[in-house]
Amino acid sequence: MVNIQKTGNPEAALNLWLSEAVGVDGSESDHILVVAYDYTQYYFSGAPLIELVVVYCQSSGQLCFVVAESSLSKYHQLESMDAGLSGLHTFARANDLPVIVLGSPLKLETVSIAKPWGQEIWYTGIEERGVSRVTDGLSSVPLPWVLSVAPRRLAANCEQKINLLKILDPLSEAVYGDLYFELHKEKREVYVVTHIDDGAWPSGIGAIRYGFNPETRKKYVTSEAFRAAYLAAVKRYEVLRRQIDEQFDVFRRDEAIGSNTPISAEVIQRWSSMLPDTVLAQEESLREEMNQFTSLLPLEQGDVVQVPLLTPHSLQHGIRTVEFQTPVYERMILSFAQKVLTQNHWDTEQAVEIMSLDSPSLPELGVLEENKAFRLEEVVKFDDFQVLRLTLMASAEYVLPQTQHYGLLLVVDGAVVCQGVGVAKEEALLLPAQRSELQIVNSLHKDAVLLLAAPV
Looking at the structure, do residues 210 and 344 belong to the same domain, yes or no? Predict the structure, then answer.
């Protein structure tokens, strides 16, 4: 028989339980703590309240837990559960839940977010559009539920401010796979190029639209004149773009496709073929006229792009990147060669007033430490978070020091084992704030490349 404790703070209940003499009488029942608590899903519209139940188990010096939304059937299972580690695993299997070891790395399960230009693959997304999960390889549970169980231990009380780790996966088709040309006033982001589609870029060199063309700027006497001319070019394109999108909306209705549902490049190409040739020629001409104001920065696999605030940018088609960003949904769209699905307007007028006119170059990465086993480089250090790149030589090891911050680890290439958890290419871990040193071992006979991020 297991007692269920109701509380407003599961970690406080855990602390109290651990501070007591757990298991002094040798009975298994002392190894189990079950806590039910109200949880506000702050990331959903209306912030709905649900009740979660967490089962903590201390066994052989290891503390593990499962967490789930409560239900009458789960209450019945818990009330009759064997009060020990075997009972915890039985409950987990019956409810398709992962058993999580507190203090060990958390393996992240991604959620894919469809975009008109392709897709984003989120590792730490916690918002209305998608919620990432924690997995043991068989079962999974929402990441925010896990963080709510022990927010101080897992995230240093930053559980609602986890940096967003994601992959940008644009379509390989030109124009259709180009991202929004946008800028940010607050959101800091860094891209690491992991793959360039050889069909889209046969030379292996892709590009990002990044800032403005210095040669075009020289044609204008003042910065204000350049801004005005660029705005006028965008406005000319936007008028035609909206006319085309309105016609596409008619096609959407005819084919029972939602007005804000992303559609494939093949469908857009089919619809475009139904437009008059004069309209298609005008669209291309106005788009090129608009884009001549901007700059294209060449990109190769492994390149790093640190996006300064207020710098307009647009990753181009067929260039897959890992992105780290602050968890702020804020942007200003200057232009887009498709219909914007998440808002009904562009922000060009406001953006032109504040945008930087610079055309930044790629940064030189500073080497923090290098020896025969590994090379550690600083990708970026913003005011609020830092990203490092670790190249681990074949079969080598690296010890990640203990910190008081949560961390993120993503394997760009190769495979590693981190504290007993296997991590393959494009898999990621959340590293708990309260943990010991972590041993990272390259499990293959080739170099492994990892990205490590943490608040500063």
Answer: yes
159 domain-assigned = no
Instruction: Answer yes or no: do 434 and 285 share one domain.
Output: no
Spatial CA neighbour of 416 closest among 433, 385, 438, 437:
438
* 124 and 160 Cβ atoms separated by less than 8 Å: no
- pLDDT at site 234: 98
* Cβ-Cβ contacts under 8 Å for 324 (sequence gap 6 or more): 163, 164, 165, 189, 190, 380, 385, 387, 408, 451, 453
CA distance 356 to 256: 42
Same domain, 315 and 403: no
> Tokens 């589609």 belong to which residue?
197
Instruction: State the CB neighbour count (10 A cutoff) for residue 61.
Output: 5
Domain boundaries, position 80? 4-97
Last residue of a domain, one of 329, 354, 379: 354
Q: What confidence score (pLDDT) does residue 29 get?
A: 45
CA–CA separation, 282 and 289 (whole Å): 10
DSSP 83: S
Residue 91 lies in a domain: yes
* Cα–Cα distance list, 216 to 213, 289, 404 (Å): 5, 11, 48
> How many separate domains does the chain show?
3
Q: What are the structure tokens assigned to 321, written together?
A: 């990147």
* Residue in the block written with tokens 């901007």: 294
pTM exceeds 0.85: yes
User: Coil, strand, or helix at residue 5?
Assistant: strand
For 365, counting Cβ atoms within 10 Å of its Cβ (0-12 exposed, 13-18 middle, 19+ buried), the class is middle
Token pair, residue 375, equals 């090379």
370 and 350 assigned to the same domain: no
CA 366 to chain centroid, in Å, comes to 24
Instruction: Please return the burial class of 363, using the count of CB atoms within 10 Å of its CB with bins 0-12, 13-18 and 19+.
Output: middle
Low-confidence ranges of the chain (pLDDT < 70): 1, 21-30
Closest CA to 435 of 397, 408, 412, 401: 401
Express each pLDDT in 29-53 by its tens digit.
448 999 999 999 999 999 999 999 9
In whole angstroms, what is the distance from residue 203 CA to residue 196 CA? 10
Q: Count other Cβ atoms within 10 Å, centred on residue 187.
A: 17
The enclosing domain of 250 has a CATH number of 2.60.120
Full strand arrangement of the beta sheet holding 294-299: 294-299, 206-212, 313-315, 181-183, 332-335
In whole angstroms, give the CA distance from residue 262 to residue 62: 46
Q: Please report the pLDDT score of residue 30 as a whole number.
A: 45
